[in-house]
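INPUT
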Amino acid sequence: MENSRYSETFDFERKRQREEALRLKNARTGINLFQGSWIFAFVALIVANLQLRSSSPAWPPLGVEKLEPLLPTIATLGLVASAVFARRGFRALKRDDVRGFLVQWRTALALGVAFVAVMAFEWLTLTPLPEVRLRLANGVETMGVLTQYNAMFRVMTAFHGLHALIIGIYMWNVYRGIAHTTPDSCTLWSVEAGAKLWYFVVIAWMLFYVVLYWL
Amino acid sequence: MASISVPMPGVQATPRPKLSEYLRWSVHHKIIGVQYMATALFFFLIGGTLAMLIRWELLTPALDFSPTGSAYNSLFTMHATVMIFLWIIPFWAGLGNYIVPLQLGAKDMAFPWLNAFAFWLIIPAGVLMLAGYFVGPPEAGWTSYPPLSVLFSGDGQTLWIISLHILGVSSILGAINFIVTIKNMRPDTMGWFQMPLFAWAQLATALIQILGVPFLAGGLTLLLLDRVAGTAFFDPSRGGDVLVWQNIFWFYSHPAVYVMVLPGMGVLSEVISVHSRKPIFGYKAIAFSSMGIALVGFTVWAHHMFTSLTPELRIPFMVTSFIIAIPTGIKIFSWIATMWGGKIRFNSAMLFSVGFLSQFVIGGITGMMLGAIPVDIQLHDTYFVVSHFHFVLFGGSVFAIYSSIYHWFPKVTGRMLDERLGKIHFYSTYVAFFFTFFPQHLVGMQGMPRRVAEYAPEFQTLNIIISISAFVLGISTFIILFNMVWSIYKGKVAGPNPWRALTLEWQTSSPPPSYNFKGEVVPFEDPYGYGTEASRVYLDEMEKRLTPANLLGKGGAAASPEPMTGD
Amino acid sequence: MNLSTKGGGSGFNPVLIILGGAIVLVGGYLISLLAPSLFPVAASAEAGPIDQLFRVMLFLGGVVFVLVEGLLIISIVRFRARKGETGDGANFNGNVTLEVIWTAIPAIVVVFITLYSYQVWVDIHSPKSDEMIVEVTGQRFVWNFTYTDPLNRLDEFPTQTFSDTVLHTYVGRPVRLKMQTRDVNHAFWVPTMRIKQDLLAGRETEIGFTPTMAGRFRVVCAELCGSGHGGMYSYIQVYATEQEWMERFIDPKVDLVIHPPEDPVVLGEIILKDGMNGRAYPCSGCHTLDILGWTAQTGPSLNGLGDTADRRAQGRGLADAADYIAQSIRHPNAYIVPGYNAGVMPQFGVSETEPETVDGAYYMYMPEEDLVNIVSYLCTQTATGESACGDIDAITAAVETQSQ
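OUTPUT
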């Protein structure tokens, strides 16, 4: 039938679109699952923190200085703002507003860098721990250091900071790619993925922030 | 008139991939599946060798082949770690990889590249794990409790931790792949409740892994830091707490045992239904009970800590541990009801599934006993526990693995396994298994703790019986290995559907072509709809479509069968 | 054949159901009769309820076992495809009544067993009145038990406690063990008394029990603690009456505190065996010494140590055997006997607070007077029984040198 060749290409095109849609759907489900899963690594560290806290007679332990919340709170607000900008950038690109996207993401990345810098500063400027008198299990008395408060802070912020860096670098690469070439449907997905991963970084930090500075 | 299709001798419709294809990077799920399974079988042999050494040491009450118990401690540490993380879990990942896309009528998994990446992580992880032997193997048990694992374990303990990190990443990526595939890639005609139960089992398993493995990652990170960075998360003298490890570890490791057994239960649903020629009894109950076990499995972890957890906190875990018996019981009764009224073919696949049922129920019973706190106080950390988990992990999972091999080997290789050897394998394994592990209940109850190379002399007789049976069990493993290798080259040609089964993987050639299905995928309305006229019609129609003539000659794409290369 | 007609060839057959049920229950009961003999003798008040609970669980387990295996065997025999049969089975895939039954009955059993277990747990776990407190120390790889004198005769003395490597008590008196570990996690398990409790680093844990039978009952470590885990055991010595316990255990111990022997060799033996003045050392956990009944193999054997020390002292430029022995204890990593590993033996040092660097696996305090006595005793471990070292002054000097 004469129409058959036309319907063949039409079918092929539809099939390709369906496969494209399926790939996108798979990728979306995949990223959602990954985030839902990986947050539990952060939760595990929180659980460790809470349990160490409950088995310690005082928190912070004797002689250890409590974490100063002012600067980290400002940095956290900046991080939350960066998520807002990341989302606005994604929305802009969906509307084909490339310039808008570039502006918003530049801001988001700058805020992210600022956040990492502040937390790195906090990391490096922790007050050194004092030696206190400890009674060991083998009956011996010794001068020792109660490390768990600071160590927990260091592990949690470093673990989070690593994620912020990796995802930030990914976003930076996506940004550069779009700054130099015309975006297509593939880059739109990479922006969506980057934005979603960045929300994950922010939410993970919110959990850590509450545990480290509020509880 | 229903008939079991007889493969045409000497004619292999679709050629198998060459050996070299399995040795290199491929993103194709069937290649990756076989890679996983072959690697897992290799580690099975390593773990089994370690078991033989353990049982040899235990022939006498004194220390035999090392002046201190250190060498022995590293034996059971590596035995358990290898068996859990490098044999059972990867094998199920591999089988699922091969079968699930076929059962769903899909061309591949949702993320083929990620699939290959997840597999290839296993190799360096396994190498790293075994490399521990060169620097002082870990000797703190697979449970790796601090302070022992931080203070008094070889440098290999650090490699062990890193290796587990890598395996954890592999598990998470694999699990995401399974969930997305099962959720998004079924054909339009296959709703959630028309999906084979093996897919449900893999789904439940994957859900457990994505929730639990990251927890283990967090705990392992803290243990690693304590070992290499001088932190004191688990050192009470500097403010740490040893129970933090126990809680985090078991929060993952208890659900991990369901990761090891649920796919096996999925296999049982397939095998029992097909070989009894009967619909699975209680499809929805089995599907929901898999999800129920996955969920409740996250609430029971501290039953491993009944002698270490604060006494007041122990009760809730006893309650949840008892509750999980209910969905398990539902499954067992459903499988028996599936057999009831059937026309059962007792081939090797079915034998091992029935074997699973008969051994797993014992493991379930002893599990219930261990769930009662007062009884567990006596039995925790004794050979009773060793016996319990071997009943569910060997009598359960490994029997299911054997069953799955006998069932799906024809699909993967296009050849049948030798039935006589299969029966010899089954009977020798069944008897040797029972005499290896059942007496361990008794020595445990009588007072023999676990993880000891020296024991009180009164336990020696039973230990000798156990060890000899274990040696027989070890030897019997080679029967199936030989059978597999021999049958690949000399086995009877299987044809597309030697079992006349209704699930989709059987409605294509053996092995399937690289694109899995020629033409449109037509699943039968009920993957377990045996005993109806409609099923007979469907199977006959499929048999006609999948004759060698059709596949080889005028049929289109299969005319020039191409190798399954990754792309 | 439809499963709603289960149990018979045709129709719902109540007789077969009841008969099957009876067989299953009887089978379970017969299996449960095995229960008492599977456990060792019951030697505590706690053992009674625990054994009874286990018996009930064995009954329930036996019922499930007979039911499941029975149904399996019946299925295998009845529903096997006969030769030449190629057809399918019946097409049914559910039966709501049946599924409700096999969900509801296990649920009811689960509720019952939960409540019963809870009641037994509360019973055995609750503190009793007039408990005797014994402090337990677990350490790689030896148990130590510390008592305070029940009659307070030691009030005037620097120490009110004495210790032993065996737990001594008497029938009918509740005991509460307060347990600490000096290094890694251990677990205190007495199979005949059905009690087990982990010793967790950094915490004190407790367990209580009441012996009901006189005799000698094994104590086993039930938490992997290292190379000597399998050899870490002890005993509970239960006397028939309190008086016997006082006469045969307490009085001699109190006497030792009030009238300590003068001979350093005798003192050394007492310190090594049971500890003294509130201090006990874990030597028996790692070393073999036949004369004291030590059998551990994590460290080198101490049999004939006097002669060995003499030889090694010469080879290593030390003054005499006493120097070698004292050095091995004060600085265990200074010389490792071939075939053994560094970093396993604790350092027994002279300061009460832990020094900056520890020359051993970890640090324990051992005052000079204890070391002098220990060295004196170990010096006599020779082929002839004569001391391989000089007199007490020489030994004291050697100890002082090594204690720098």
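end of record. The longest strand of chain C covers residues 132-139.
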